[in-house]
Amino acid sequence: MNAAIPALMRAVQVRVPGGPDALDLVELPVPACGPGEVLVRAAVIGAGGPDVLIRKGIYKWMPPLPAIPGNEMSGRIAAVGKGVDPGRIGQRVLVSSRELPARGGCYAQYIAIPEQAPFALPDGVSDTDAVSLGNLQLAQAMLLHSNGGLPVRSILVPGAAGGVATALVQLAAHHGMTIIGTASTPAKQAHALAYGVTTLVDAEPAGLPQRVMAATGGRGVDLAFDHVGGELFIACIRSLAPLGTAISYNIASGPPAGDVFMELRAHLSKSLAVRTFSIHTFDEDRDLRRALMENAIALMARGAVKAPPTQAFPLSEVRQVHEMLDAGSTLGKLVLVAE
């Protein structure tokens, strides 16, 4: 048996890619719940960088237009299709588009998805906190699955108050690692320290390696996580300990400002490595991908990690939220509340 489901729902669509004004609030039919599917009624929807890329039409895994952005949603199962246990109606769940045939789809009051796609949410994880779990899933993949199993004693996290960075910091602290971080404002510095950064250093790239070496007794860090590119990626390489790896998970400022291979050769005695990283690496490894998310849920439920602070807005204010995403100055997670 299914709860009463309206005929129409509110959703956000991109018809023609562009700026925040490309996001249109529309009314659409509530999707039909087919055999083997569940219909999820949204409570809270996460907003983040991949949504901006969908809005701009430049996401590498772009859904077809017109597209509904949104890659994470918490809510309850409102209906089930043929062959699905009706006892699941009312279950609190997290929807991650990493489990769906196409990315996006979560900027809507309802979404119909395969029954095996959502993750059950325990009472210890709120609807609002749940939409930050994707960053923790990604952080686990980067921290624990990207350096060939070598031991990690210390890491460098520039921009340590960011969304992915905050998850990285907490996870590293949970595993007893030393965390060198940077943050650009007093508020972000306080945030980084509160979430587990061991030592804050100045972010200026030219002097960053020297400051990292000083903070680590001259050894350097085992892993350095760069989301900027440009001069920072070269600084990350120079900050590494022997057998260390610099990981590029974004290039917000463009490609590295130098010859990466020659930079590695300049430090040949350390046998350094570089890696680009994307969570899409796990698209074909369902078991590991879901295990990473299940572990993220368990960590948050028992308080080993916590969600970042959030700012909540109604779905109708999605353009304002994207203006804030474009500005890049927000501390914490931006979320949309299904109305």
From TrEMBL:
Keywords: NADP, Oxidoreductase. Signal peptide: none annotated. It comes from the Bacteria. Its EC number is 1.6.5.5. One of its GO terms (molecular function) is quinone reductase (NADPH) activity. The keyword Oxidoreductase applies. It is an enzyme of class 1 (oxidoreductase). This is Quinone oxidoreductase 1. It comes from Pigmentiphaga humi. The gene is qorA_2.
